[in-house]
Write a structure and sequence with these properties.
Elements: E1 2-13, E2 17-21, E3 32-42, E4 45-47, E5 50-53, E6 59-65, E7 68-80, H1 91-94, H2 108-115, H3 120-134, E8 136-137, H4 148-154, E9 156-157, H5 159-172, E10 177-183, E11 193-200, E12 203-207, E13 219-224, E14 233-236, E15 240-251
Parallel strand pairs: 8-9
Antiparallel strand pairs: 1-7, 1-15, 2-6, 2-14, 3-4, 3-7, 5-6, 10-11, 10-13, 11-12
Helix pairs in contact: 3-5, 4-5
Length: 266
């Protein structure tokens, strides 16, 4: 499998800001090769970011920028699929806890009522289908502060909202779950994508209730408890406005996905 991705982002910075980007593909495991270019420019002048390693291969790129026009450009080719990596026991504790956008404690009764008696493959497929049939995908319908509970009440959202609801329901059922931001070949409309990962039968498996892209061709960017850990840009100090954003992701052969099958991000 050969996957090619790119992102072009343009921003207007009105005052000095500390910026942290998460747009580079996560460091792949054995079995996959990554070739990439990443550049940042402020008013045309290049900026050299500091790369900081985060959890699960996530790579953050941080720098301080003065007011001006900033561009970020990323291109990458991933060849092959990475092998499953050893699971950290601490992850199975961390990703069972309620978090800012995945309030599993508030959805305990709903999860137990809807999915009682299900486990493993059947549970993941049922949660994915349940969320997918109860929400409507409506771009711009959710607020940056909306969590799983608001999403369930509003019955609409975008990929991160679908994922937060899946994560909250799974954690309420004692299944560790986390959020992954990803490049997604086949996604329409094309953008950065968000999916859930659930720990079942000794491995992390992808849950994507939107069904907007095949899970087999996803490329991991960042992984964390919820969107608070996986945003493509974190800004402190200054005011930053997105002026333009273009994302692309292709694969040599688009896979056929089946919600009932286990899929890992490779």
């Amino acid at each position: 499998m050969k996957r090619t991705v790119a992102a072009h982002l343009a921003f207007t910075i009105s005052s000095r800001a500390n910026l942290v980007f998460a747009i580079a593909a996560a460091r792949p495991g054995a079995g996959a090769e990554l070739e990439e270019t990443l550049s940042f420019r402020l008013d045309g002048a290049p900026i050299e970011p500091e790369e900081i390693a985060d959890l699960h291969g996530t790579r953050l790129h941080q720098f301080v920028a003065d007011a001006g026009a900033l561009t970020a450009d990323y291109e990458a080719t991933v060849t092959g699929r990475a092998e499953a990596i050893e699971v950290d026991p601490l992850d199975l504790i961390t990703y069972l806890r309620p978090s800012r956008y995945a309030e599993s404690d508030a959805l305990f009764a709903t999860a137990r009522s809807e999915f009682q008696g299900l486990e493993g493959r059947d549970l993941l497929a049922s949660v994915s289908s349940w969320v997918g049939t109860r929400l409507s995908y409506v771009p711009g319908s959710s607020q940056p502060t909306d969590g799983a509970r608001e999403t369930l009440l509003d019955r609409r959202g975008v990929c991160r909202d679908y994922s937060h609801l899946c994560i909250a329901l799974l954690r309420a059922l004692d299944v560790p779950a986390r959020l992954v931001s990803a490049y997604a070949p086949g996604l329409q409309p094309m953008d950065f994508h968000a999916v859930a990962e659930a720990y079942v039968d000794g491995q992390w498996h992808v849950v994507d209730a939107t069904s907007l892209a095949p899970r087999q061709s996803l490329i991991r960017i960042a992984t964390g408890r919820d969107a608070a850990d996986t945003a493509f840009l974190t800004n402190h100090w200054g005011n930053v406005t997105v002026a333009n954003m273009q994302v692309s992701a292709t694969v040599d052969e688009l896979p056929t996905d089946d919600v009932r099958e286990f899929v890992t991000i490779g």
